[in-house]
Amino acid sequence: MTANPSRLLLVAAALGALLAIAGNMLPAPALVYLFKPATTLLIIAWAWPRGADAPAVRRWVLIGLVLSLAGDVFLMWPQQGFLPGLVSFLLAHLAYIVAFTRRARFAARPLPFVLYALVAAVLLSQLWPGVPAALQLPVLAYVVCLAAMAAQAGVVWLVARGGDGESLARNAAIGGVFFMTSDTLLAFNKFNAPVPLSALLILATYWLAQGLIAASLSAAAPTARSGRHESNVR
Length: 234
Description:
There is one protein chain. By secondary structure, the chain is mainly α. The chain has one domain (54-219). The protein has 8 helices and 2 strands; from the N terminus they run ααααααααββ. The protein has helices at residues 5-25, 29-47, 55-74, 82-101, 110-127, 133-160, 166-191, 198-214; strands at 223-225, 228-230. A two-stranded antiparallel sheet has the order 1-2. A hairpin with a 2-residue loop joins strand 1 (223-225) and strand 2 (228-230). Helix 7 (166-191) runs antiparallel to helix 8.
């Protein structure tokens, strides 16, 4: 039986994520330096052949993943790399917003924006006292972009409900929820109080978010081999 490259990439990404998380918890910095960027690279490789039916969406999702990879690298140095990492992920969220607006008009359904605005306001009210003055504006801008990205992903799902693309749109919406969860845990761990099992919770939800956003792209078209068709696993 021929191995499925898509499945192998997903398995490799899952193993890379486990090793990166273990490297944070042990601690074993070498595992983090190697497998943190490698895991995101594997997700990019898995996403690369997807989305041929929507090239504009595919392009902006891939840009968001590459910017996220840059953010991963910067955040391996939590002090010096925090601001460049924050900017990289802010740009990644803007790229995802552009991707999702190729699927549905921005804020075409107001409810997700109302809900995420309320969540963001509550989170900022709790975090703000612990955010250094020099980081307050970047953090505020980041939270706005994060919440807008997650909300627009929710809009995409609401617009697609009942249609052929609903399952893909649902992946994007759930990915937005996981991204909001991951960054909330990261922010509380940095600016409020230590979060138990922070490396496990932050990184697991982060890579689930990225994988689900990548999975909002349609699978690659089947290829013919020996007179029969084989399709990639989503």
